Please model this.
Amino acid sequence: MTKQHMQHAPKPVFTSAEKHPDDLELDAHLFRQALAQFATGITIITTAKQGGGYVGVTANSFNSVSLHPPLVLWSLSKKASSHDAFAAATHYGVSVLAAEQEALSHHFSTFKGDRFAGLDVIEGLGGVALIPDALAHFECKIRSRYEEGDHYIMVGEVLRCNFREGEALVYRSRKYFKN
Model:
């Protein structure tokens, strides 16, 4: 790296305890703040409940894994109330939210009751719910689950997908943006 490039590199931010980069324990708050600088799209991930109905969560941990075969993944907190439904599921659906669907993102991340009450959905493969007017839908068969840290990682094989053009709902630094 040349001297000119080094002048433009971001200066490290340390906590009030002045953690040194060589410290083995990473400050959780600092880690969370740094992660918040990464802009992500917002999705609603759903599955069918055993016995009927749906479970859904707002997630920004969605990303692609492979084109051949078509694989995607997302992660779910071990503390999530929907854990049991996703652990028993064979399929999940991903709806990539459009800019005008910010209220749905809030609803699926904060509402504690039946998140689907009064909401129209499109039923996808494996009985998953897809959100109408989303920018993209991915209908997935669960291929594998991994336990890592305080989350479960769920890899799905995409069986069917579709999309439309439009502005995306984007999240960065705990704020929504339209892109």
